[in-house]
Amino acid sequence: xxxxxxETRVVHGGWRNWVFILVRxxxxxxGYGEASIRSHExxxxxxxxxxxxxxEGQDPxxxxxxxxxxxxGFHWRGGPILLSxxxxxxxxxxxxxxxxLGVPVHALLGGPCRDRIRAYANGWFGDASTPDEFARRAADxxxxxxxxxxxxxxxxxxxxxxxxxxxxxxxxxxxxxEAVGPHVDLLIETHGLFEAPMxxxxxxxxxxxxxxFVEEPLPPENVQAMAALKRTARVPxxxxxxRYTKYGFVDLLEQxxxxxxxxxxxxxxxxxxxxKIAAMAEAHYVGVAPHNSGGPIGTAASLQIDACTPNFLxxxxxxxxxxxxxEILTHPVEVLDxxxxxxxxxxxxGVELDEKVALAHPYQPVDLPAYAVRH
Length: 375
What we know:
alpha/beta, Enolase-like, domain 1, TIM Barrel, 4-stranded mixed β-sheet
C-alpha cells in the first residue's frame, strides 16, 4: 500500500476553524486526522503541504519512521504549527492501519484499560456573564448527566486582575459549587493569564471549593516558576496543552511542576507520542487529562488514547460549539449519560468525514486574543 495524496479540509466550527487532514492510499483507504489550531489554520495547512512532498509514495504503515523523519529530518523542529501538522498526519496514518486490520487504534496500543471514558464538559456556559447565570447553566448541565464542568471565571485577567473583577470571579465559582452540590467536579481554567503572585492568590482563594484542578495558572514558558507555585499550592495544578512532544514534558515532570498533564493529540505529536508522554507521566505518578478544544476527529483520536492509557483521568469535551457538530462525521462518537464516552469499537479512529457537510461550512477568519481586555 502507498500514500497517493495528502489533503486538508478547513471547516468553520464556531469560535475557531477545524483543520482536518486526509491521507489517501492506492488501496482505497483514507485516513483522517485533525490539526486544528486557533487563528493560525492557514499556517498549519502550508506545513501539511510541505510534509506531503515527503509522504506521497510512502508506505503508510511505517508510522514511527515517518514521524521521526518529519520531526527530525527538517532541522527546524517543534512548535505549535509544525507539531500540529505532524500530529494530524500521524493520526491519519494510525487510522489507515486500524482500518486495514479491521480493529480500533487502541487495540494496537495495548487494548482498553476501562469500560468507559469519563469526560468533563466545556462550553456549557454559553454566553453567561453573571454568577447566577453560570449557576443556572451549570445546574442544567449536571441535570443532563455531566459529572464534571470546566470554565474560566477569570476572563478579564491580563497578568493581574482588578480587585472587583477577582471577587466577581470567585463569586462565580461559589455560585456554581452551590448550584451543583459537592459531588460534581469543578475544573477551573485560567489560560496562563496570571503572573506568579496573582496566581498564588487565585489558588488560595479556590481552596474552599474543592476543585478538581486549576489549569495553566501560569504561562507555559517557565517551568521553574510553575514548580515554585506548585510547592505552595493546596489545590491540584494541571498544564501541558502548549507543550509539544515527549521532550517538552521532561522538565514539567522532573521538576514536579504539575499534578496533572494535559497533552493535546492535535498538537503534541499525535497518538503514539501522547502515549509515550503518558508513560513518562505514569513513572512520575502523574495523571493524564488530554486537552481537546478542537473538532470531532480530534475527539475521536483522543478517545483511542484514553481507552488504553492506565493513568488517564478525564477527557475534555465541548459538544456545544456548533449544532451540526455530529453531522460532519458519518459515525459520531457516542456519549453515554452525558458524562462518559463509550470505548470506540469501529476500525481505525472509527470515523469518516462527510465532505458535503465540511464544504457547507468553509473557512472563515477568526482572530481571538489570548486575553480579553487591556487595562
